[in-house]
Amino acid sequence: MPKSNIDLLLGRVAGSTSWWLRRLPDDNAPDATGSGFDVMCARDTTPSPLREEELAELLDDEEIEQRLDEIGDWEREGDEIQKVFEFDDFSSAVRFVNDVAKMADRYDHHPDIDIRYNKVKLTMSTHSEGGLTSIDFDLAADIEQSIEE
Prior knowledge:
Blueprint: E1 7-13, E2 17-23, E3 37-44, H1 52-56, H2 61-71, E4 75-77, E5 80-86, H3 90-107, E6 112-116, E7 119-124, H4 134-148
Antiparallel strand pairs: 1-2, 2-3, 4-5, 5-7, 6-7
């Protein structure tokens, strides 16, 4: 077996979840389980709740301003919306990012994520369409709702 950092797909388990393990660079390297693998993470592959036609249409400035008012503290920066979330510590920030990743996979729409210790900056744009679409705001609203719970 190669001694390199290889991602191994173990296959679909538990319905719509795919499990991945990352082999440590050295088979003898210490890890939490003693198995030679250090990370096991789940990727939710539930189909996107959005219809294809919702993705294609860019929003105009008036629609963007209206949607920004609906989601709160997000700011528009050109063809993107962004927000910085602050947490008590690094672990809390990473837990939040993992929750965002699950939501993003459900939407099949992935924000740019920047983690700086306890601060997480999310930036959304529909790159394939060259600007902001409903999916950017729908995902932002779901993220907002998740932190309120």
